[in-house]
Amino acid sequence: MGNNKRIIQILDQSACLSKGQLLGYLKHNLYPEELRAVELHLNGCPFCNDALEGFEQLPGDPAHLLTGLVPPVLPAMPLPEKPKEKKEPVPAIKQANPQGSPRALKKNLPTTEKAQPSPGINWKLPAGIAAALVIGGFSFWLLQLKSNEDSSLLADNSLTDTATLNMDTGQLQMHKTPPAVLPEKPVIEIAKDSLNLAKKEPAPVKAEEQVQLMQAAVEVKKAEPNPDETENGDLTETTDPIVERPKPAVARASSVDDTPKAAKAKEIKEDLSDFGIGLGLYKQKQYAGALLYMRSAEANSSDPMHWDAVYYSALCNKELGKRRKAIRLFERIVKADAPRKNAAQKQLDELNKKR
Amino acid sequence: MSTINNNYRNLNDEDLVLRIAGRQDQEAFSTLYQRYVHLALGVCLKYLKSTEAAKDAVQVVFTKLWTDAHLHQIRRFKPWFYQVLKNHCLMELRKKDPHQKVVAEWEPGFMEFEDPLHPHCSEEKLFELLEACLKGLNKEQYQCIDHFYIQQRSYLETAAHTGYSDKQVKSYLQNGRRNLKNCLNQKMERQ
Questions:
Q1: Contacts of B164 (CB under 8 A, 6+ apart)
Q2: Do B40 and A51 touch (CB under 8 A)?
Q3: From CA B7, how far away is CA A157, in angstroms rounded?
Q4: Distance CA B70, CA B68 (A)
Q5: I need a labelling partner for A81 at 20 to 30 A (CA). Which of A143, A221, B13, B142 fits?
Q6: Position B7 confidence tier, pLDDT thresholds 50, 70, 90
Q7: Is A112 exposed, middle or buried, given 0-12, 13-18 or 19+ CB atoms closer than 10 A?
């Protein structure tokens, strides 16, 4: 090594002495190269120098002292707070019919999502939120469409067509009359197991149907003599239903059930039930979101989909890594001899094998 | 497990402290403990002059490291830890005898941790500056540096050749080294 490099060694800083180096230096049994390295380090490290002095003062064997040293028992420390994760928004509230009661909807929802996905699967949470929002938006759009149709019917025919029978000519005459003030749509109680819409009122009867009914009535009437006719042939005031203004649409509810629109509304209702939405989410692998709905659906034991909801709850728990919960739910199905008992038993066997 | 231990051994002190502070990482603590426990014990032995007291002090200081690491912004662990040890020993001595004067031993100046030198010049230039600074040292310091660094002798051999004691050789070497570094820093700043 040239003189230059030897002088520059003055500036070098090396790591502190290891236990072996310290003990070897104290016992003077280091190799020359190691001794050189230790002494070079000691020139620039007060920590190691003080430690060496401390051991040199000690009468006994420093190695014995070091081996007798036991690491401290560390107290449990709270971990530093992590940034709060955004909670998955409850999709049912966003999907709710504006006419529905928000309290009734919120009652059945858990306030905190306990069935959190296992660590490391954080991407599922935003995906679940996105899916729930899409479904909510779509159902809300459908409802809006429906209500727009209803209002457009009224708007287009702002003056409703009313048919009156002209007794002289025996013909029906159409008049434009201001729309009848419809009574407020009654809010039917939402079933406990439903997170969604109130039942819709059937659509009011169209003017055309009304006309048909009246024509039919007229034909019947013609066949019978009119007891109210006076000798002059004038009609007295009667309460003949033909001349009466049409009753409000609410009264004709029973005839509407068979219309295709009502069938569609029913269909939508079924799809938007808790079990239906939960199943949809399950098929999209949004297990945390699906679990919410399934739990709500299984709350009502008289519901025909109750046991299906229990089964899917168990599947969701299984997918989320909650083995014990899943096992408990499957066992419940098997014990109750419910439908899907065989499927539940298979799942149980699979879960028990993994133990 | 051995792979994890090896990985931790490759981490520097500051990284280990960050893991202790941020994640309560017991492996990191264990690595740091193994690295410095013998030095901590030696320092406590020097100041407390009692084996039992020194052992207790080491336990307390390491526990403090575990509990308080997150409270301090530790840029350089070694000087910080050394200071914490000394402060603890001083407190213990004051508890035993409040009137005992231990100030003299705590006066800074004899040997301090040096800031790492980051030369911004070539090796040749550095050598030139060092040679110039060597000429500015006193006779004893120059002799010891010459024997120890240039002639590559050990402490004992340097002591034998110069006639100074072991401790004197150490002292001259340490002071000489510090003076050289200060001189070098000044010259580099001027340039």
A1: B140, B144, B158, B172
A2: yes
A3: 81
A4: 5
A5: B13
A6: confident
A7: exposed
Task: Dig out the tokens for A196 from the structure.
Answer: 């969604």
pLDDT of residue A295: 84
Rounded distance between C-alpha atoms, residue A180 and residue A158, angstroms: 10
Size of interface A-B (CB pairs under 8 A): 135
CA distance B7 to chain A (A): 17
Residue where the block lists tokens 């199943």: A279
Q: What's the first-to-final CA gap in chain B, in angstroms?
A: 51
DSSP codes, B7-25: HHHTS-HHHHHHHHHHH--
CA–CA separation, B113 vs B110, rounded Å? 10
Best residue of A1, A6, A7 to probe chain B, by most B CBs closer than 10 Å: A7
Where does A121-207 show beta strands of DSSP type E?
A: 160-166, 171-177
The span from the CA of A217 to the CA of B3, in Å, is 95
Tokens of A307: 């046991």
User: ipTM of this model?
Assistant: 0.86
- The model's pTM is 0.48
pLDDT digits (tens, 9 = 90+) for B71-125: 888 888 999 999 999 999 999 999 887 776 654 444 444 455 655 555 566 777 8
Does B119 sit within 8 Å of A54, measured CB to CB? no
Residue A163 φ/ψ, nearest 5 degrees: -105, 130
Q: What is the number of residues in chain A?
A: 355
Nearest CA to CA, how far is B73 from chain A (Å)?
15
- Read off the tokens for A348: 């149980």
Q: Is A9 on the interface with B (CB under 8 A)?
A: yes
Q: A46 vs B78: CB contact, 8 Å cut-off? A: no
Task: Tell which of B39, B51, B142, B182 to mutate to test the A interface (max A CBs under 10 Å).
Answer: B39
Q: A74, B66: Cβ pair inside 8 Å?
A: yes
Mean pLDDT of A119-124: 65
| Residue among B13, B20, B46 with most chain A CBs within 10 A, to mutate | B46
Residues 55 through 114 of chain A touching chain B, CB cutoff 8 Å = 55, 57-58, 60, 65-66, 68-69, 71-72, 74-75, 77, 79-80
